Amino acid sequence: MRVAIAGAGAVGRSIAGELLENGHEILLIDKAPTAISVERVPLAEWLLADACEITSLDEAALQRCNVVIAATGDDKVNLVVSLLAKTEYGVPRVVARVNNPKNEWLFNESWGVDVAVSTPRLMSALVEEAVSVGDLVRLLRFSHGDANLVELTLPPEAALAGTRVGDVEWPEDTSLVTIIRGTRVLTPNKEDALEAGDELLFVAAQSREEQLEDLLSVRRTDA
Description:
The chain is elongated, with a radius of gyration of 20 Å. It has an eleven-stranded mixed β-sheet with strand order 3-2-1-4-5-6-7-8-11-9-10, with helices on both faces. The chain has helices at 10-21, 54-59, 75-87, 119-131, 209-217; strands spanning 2-6, 25-30, 45-48, 67-70, 93-98, 115-118, 137-142, 147-153, 174-181, 184-186, 199-205. The protein has five helices and eleven strands, in the order βαββαβαββαβββββα. The longest helix has 13 residues, at 75-87. Residues 125-131 have low confidence and may be disordered.
């Protein structure tokens, strides 16, 4: 997979290193000469250019990229890069970094963003995830379809503890994608029984989050 990363700062280089380890082809783009540190990520391609300019993106052959990541420290730049990548080059997947949480509302499909990653929100979500049992925690927002990646740790008093996944009437527009049980990561199947303490990861429409939390958190009693 070919991935272009706009922004060769600490964030961009870190992402590049991880993706290179997974066997992907990486192009790092930055307009600041001081950011071009080939020795730090020697296996990546490097381009000294302004990622907000069409001529630069032509030189980068952005149309050959499977993914573009807008990872600069400037939200305006990240939005422009995202929009150009999607509308001018038809890049299938565009991921954008949100630096200021106040700008999150802009990072959607109107600006070509498929996935918006807000570092402050992600950090706060991870703190909540570490200390919360029975509360739904939003980890990541996907622009298309108004869907979010959410997590809930099943409390001991949950009505569904002991219930098979296939027997649960999940809300519409939700999908259980992973069960984390201790040190194990399980791909759910209909025969798996939910256990107290399971960390459940869902992709869910925002409108269904409250319904999902009620289903998983509350022990229902017969009337």
